[in-house]
Amino acid sequence: MAEFDFTPYSQQWVNLFLIWVGFSTIAGLLARLFLPGNDPVGPLAMTAIAMLGTTLGLFLFGSVVKQTCPTGPCNPISIPGLLCAFAGVLVCLGGYRLIIRTTVREYSSSYDSDEE
Questions:
Q1: For 69, which of 3, 59, 86, 101 is 20 to 30 Å away at the CA?
Q2: What residue spans of 35-78 are helical by DSSP H?
Q3: Helix or strand or coil: residue 115?
Q4: 77 and 15 in contact (C-beta within 8 Å)?
């Protein structure tokens, strides 16, 4: 297998990206555990929803922590960060389901009216 030689700066970004994908995947799996259902979403789309929800949740978490403790460091990869990421993924997954149901309902109602 080929080895990649990255500069230290780019290696840091690759590591951060992989940590972010792993953290988002864990939050997404937790969200799917608490919101089970038969969604027509594949693993890549679920990972994208999880990353969007994690970003949303951790952005809100970071803004709250910054206001409550402006001098302390904020590490989003923690238990409170995971809970906020989980909440963000729940919101995004719920929004996705709402959009899909509305779109499917509108499509099926227009399909039914064409048959008559």
A1: 86
A2: 43-68
A3: helix
A4: no
